[in-house]
């Protein structure tokens, strides 16, 4: 089950489609949208508010007994640790999986995203994962996240500029696209940028396939 921590059902559908393409027939994916919260998670308060909603959705899935694994569909990984502790199921989060993948082999990596108010939270997550020495920093798009999300062409252009800044100014050799709602843009950027672009939803799906299954 892919749990979308924001209340946009369109975002849930988009992320679920990407997860299904990544996992194929091996692991069918069902998308679920949390019951309450903002349409986008753009600041630390929104991340904190989303965590209990994510936990509640995961607990319902575990109780139903037809869920083999959980994927937290936000880059800030709200509720991730609580889900692992409470459900016993394999659980992956977009942020954790993408950051670890980007840093594999000791590569210097950066993050390109649309949410300036989450820059400190992202840096803290990088440090908590023990990756601070490889982190070249964050590059942010110009413009409000809500406006960019409503204009896919502009979003892609601004994110591509941020990716190039990570490489050309900061020395990154891999760049994470920091956001679940940026999933389609992340897929498109993989073909447009010479550097390795780490798309968070496929990264989390790959992480799930490496986790041991539960009985």
UniProtKB/TrEMBL annotation:
Write down the InterPro entries for this protein, in alphabetical order: Asp/Glu/hydantoin_racemase, Hydantoin_racemase-like, Iso_Racemase_Enz_sf
Q: What's a Pfam family in this record?
A: Asp_Glu_race
- Molecular function terms from GO: amino-acid racemase activity
Q: Which domain of life is it from?
A: Bacteria
UniProt lists the family membership as follows:
Belongs to the HyuE racemase family.
Q: What is this protein called?
A: Hydantoin racemase
Q: Which organism is it from?
A: Streptomyces gardneri
């Amino acid at each position: 089950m892919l749990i979308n921590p924001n209340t946009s059902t369109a975002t849930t559908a988009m992320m679920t489609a990407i997860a299904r393409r990544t996992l194929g027939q091996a692991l069918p994916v069902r998308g679920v949208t949390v019951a309450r919260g903002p349409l986008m998670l753009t600041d630390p308060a929104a991340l904190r508010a989303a965590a209990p909603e994510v936990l509640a959705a995961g607990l319902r899935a575990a109780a139903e007994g037809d869920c083999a694994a959980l994927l937290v569909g936000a880059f800030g990984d709200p509720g991730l640790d609580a889900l692992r502790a409470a459900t016993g199921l394999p659980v992956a989060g977009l942020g954790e999986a993408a950051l670890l993948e980007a840093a594999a082999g000791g590569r210097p990596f950066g993050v390109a995203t649309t949410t300036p108010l989450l820059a400190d939270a992202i840096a803290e997550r990088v440090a908590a994962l023990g990756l601070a020495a490889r982190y070249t920093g964050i590059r942010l798009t110009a413009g409000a996240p809500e406006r960019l999300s409503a204009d896919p062409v502009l979003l892609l252009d601004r994110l591509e500029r941020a990716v190039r800044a990570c490489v050309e100014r900061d020395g990154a050799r891999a760049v994470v696209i920091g956001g679940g709602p940026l999933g389609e843009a992340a897929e498109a950027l993989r073909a447009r940028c010479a550097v390795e672009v780490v798309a968070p939803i496929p990264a989390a799906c790959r992480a799930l396939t490496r986790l041991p299954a539960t009985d």
